[in-house]
Amino acid sequence: MAALDEIHRDWTALGDSDPLWAVLTDRGKRNGGWDEAEFLATGAAEIDGTAAWLAELGVTVQRGRALDFGCGAGRLSTALTAHFDEVVGVDISEPMLAAARRLDRTGRVRYVHNTAADLTCLEEGSFDLVYTNLVLQHMPPAPTRNYLRELVRVARPGGALVIGIPDRTLPTAVGVLSRIVPHAVIRFVQRTLLGFPAAMRMHTMPGAEARSLARACGARLVASEVYEDNPHWRHMRHVIVKEPEAEAEAEAA
Q1: Architecture of the domain whose range is 2-252
Q2: CA-CA-CA-CA dihedral for 140, 154, 101, 105, to nearest 10
Q3: What helix, strand, coil percent values describe the chain, rounded to 5?
Q4: Which terminal residue of the chain has fewer beta carbons within 10 Å of its beta carbon, N or C?
Q5: What pLDDT digit, counting tens, does each position of 213-238 carry?
Q6: Beta bridge pairs of residue 166
Q7: What b-and-e string marks burial along 178-212, b requiring 16 or more CB atoms within 10 Å of the CB?
C-alpha cells in the first residue's frame, strides 16, 4: 500500500532524526530538547489517568497483557508496565523502536516492528487492554479503519480498547487548510518551510464512524471524551469494550 510505504519512510526518518519530539511535538523540545525522564513521566501520567477513567466508567480490565499500538519511543509502553504483567509495543519505525528499547528501564516490554497493513504478527484475542493514542491520525482513512478492525480482533473477549484520534478539525487556518489542501502541498510546507525531518499526516475520524466500526467488529463504544488541548483538531479518546464471546454469538444469531 503506497500510503503505508510513505508513512514507513517518514517515521523512519523522524525516528532517526528526533524521535522524542516526533512523538510529542512541543515547539520548545525540537532537536533533542526532551529530557528523557520528563518524556517518560508524561506517559506515566497519561496511563495512570486512563486507568482512573476506566475505573470511573466501571470498565474492569484484567492485568495480564497490554498492547501499545504505534508505540513510537515507548513513552506509553513503559508506563503500561506499572499496570500489566506483559506489554507489547508495535511500531512501523525501527529507529523509533530502537529509542524505545534504549529508554525501557523495566525490561518487561516486547517491541515488535510491523510494516504490514494488518496485525497478523499478533494473536487473536490475546490482549486485556489495547491502547493507541496520537497514532491513527497520521494514517489515511482506509488503513485506519483496517487497523481498528485488527485492534478489536487482538483484544480478548471482554477486554477494552482505548482509541485516541481527532474527530474533526477546528475552524482555525491550520485546521481548515489541513482539510482542503492537497497532501503533497502539506508535505512541502512541513519539510521546506517548517523544517520537519519528514512530513506528518493529519486525519480525522468522526465518533459515529468509530462507533459503527466497533459494532461491526463485535464491540461497543461505551464512552468518549475530548482529550488534549489542541487549537486545530478536536482530539477524542474512545473506550471500546469487546463483547464476551457468548454475547457476540447471541447477537450474531
Answers
A1: 3-Layer(aba) Sandwich (3.40)
A2: 130
A3: 45, 20, 30
A4: C
A5: 999 999 999 999 998 788 899 999 99
A6: 235
A7: beeeeeeebbeebeeeeebbbbbbbbbbeeebbbe
Query: What sections of the chain are H helices per DSSP?
Result: 2-17, 19-23, 36-57, 75-80, 94-103, 141-154, 173-180, 183-188, 207-216, 245-252
DSSP state of 48: H
Q: Is 248 helix (H, G, I), strand (E, B) or coil?
A: helix
C-alpha distances (whole Å) from 253 to each of 18, 219, 240 are: 51, 16, 22
Name the grid cell of 182: 492537497
Nearest CA to 69 among 159, 150, 141, 158? 150
Query: For residue 111, what is its C-alpha cell?
Result: 517491541
- Model confidence over 75-113: pLDDT tens digits? 999 999 999 999 999 999 999 999 999 999 999 999 999
Contact call for residues 4 and 93 (beta carbons, < 8 A) = no
Q: Which three cell numbers stand for residue 108?
A: 518487561
First CA to last CA across the chain, in angstroms?
36
Tell me if the pTM is above 0.85: yes
For the chain, what are the domain ranges? 2-252
